[in-house]
Design goal:
This protein has one domain. The protein is mainly beta. The chain has two helices and 15 strands. The strands form three sheets. Strands 3, 4, 6, 7, 8, 12 and 15 form a seven-stranded mixed beta sheet that branches.
Length: about 270
């Protein structure tokens, strides 16, 4: 039996709940991923791709990052069943700090049916996270701690359904602490980053109280959905044509105080 994390307002232990029966291969509802600022505003995202690969829905978006801004990841579960979510930032699992491939064997959070979860930082113990903020690659947690730029600038969420299983016993299990993400070390910036100064990354920010509990949950082997968000500075998105950043220099039908011009051959007469 596996145990996953659930964010709560107080540290309490919960008994495992029975799994909902599956009504087909696809989720009966939506699971959305939004990136929000500390002020609660949803950050500008531009849809890129939405496709199915096997039984997994793949959603890709671009996001405008603002340097130095704290952000959180909000996952809304608009289905009747609870789900497990593997979340990675810059290629590192936000619970353990380990390299993430979004697999079912990784540490994950649980989101109950018709509920949401908000994840604001790298987890360092059962009561603490260190806040996400947009920064340069050399200051990113992935670079400073692991010298890893292999998935820089990508926020990724994999959604896993719960395996059907018999009614569980009333069992609870208490962990003294969640696996701690390594604290920021002194690893040198990789040479590959020197040519990627325009890429955005995520830093290891201020400490924040964020208690969790461990709950029994057995995920299916493959995710039903993956959401990948590529965040970039505004100037990069403009240059790539993802955002239309051309200045508007007037209104074609509203400009005033202009007279009809002479034809070119009559000018100066």
């Amino acid at each position: 039996m596996r145990y996953v994390l659930s964010a709560v307002l107080a540290v309490v232990m919960m008994a495992a709940a029975p799994a909902y029966p599956h009504a087909g291969d696809r989720l009966q509802g939506e699971v959305t991923v939004e990136i929000v600022s500390d002020r609660g505003a949803t950050l500008l995202a531009v849809p890129h791709k939405d496709l199915w690969r096997g039984g997994t829905r793949i959603i890709k978006k671009f996001l405008e990052a603002k340097k130095g801004e704290n952000y959180g990841i909000v996952i809304r579960n608009m289905t009747p069943e609870r789900i497990g979510v593997v979340v990675s930032v810059d290629g590192r699992n936000i619970i353990s700090g380990k390299r993430s491939d979004l697999r079912s064997t990784e540490d994950m959070y649980l989101v109950n049916g018709y509920d949401l979860g908000r994840y604001d930082g790298w987890r360092t113990d059962k009561d603490t996270v260190h806040k996400f903020y947009f920064t340069d690659p050399g200051d990113s947690y992935s670079s400073r701690t692991f010298n890893d730029a292999s998935a820089m600038g990508v926020i990724a969420v994999a959604v896993y359904r719960e395996k059907d299983r018999p009614q569980p016993r009333n069992e609870t299990r208490k962990h003294e602490s969640a696996p701690a993400a390594p604290s920021a070390g002194s690893a040198e910036r990789s040479k590959s980053l020197s040519s990627r100064d325009e890429t955005a990354g995520t830093g290891f920010g201020e400490r924040q109280y964020s208690p969790i509990v461990w709950i029994a949950f057995e995920p299916e082997h493959l995710p039903v959905q993956k959401t990948l968000v590529k965040y970039e500075w505004r100037e990069v998105l403009c240059r790539k044509g993802i955002l239309n950043c051309r200045e508007v220099t007037g209104n074609r039908l509203w400009d005033e105080n202009q007279y009809a011009p002479y034809p070119p051959e009559l000018r100066g007469n």
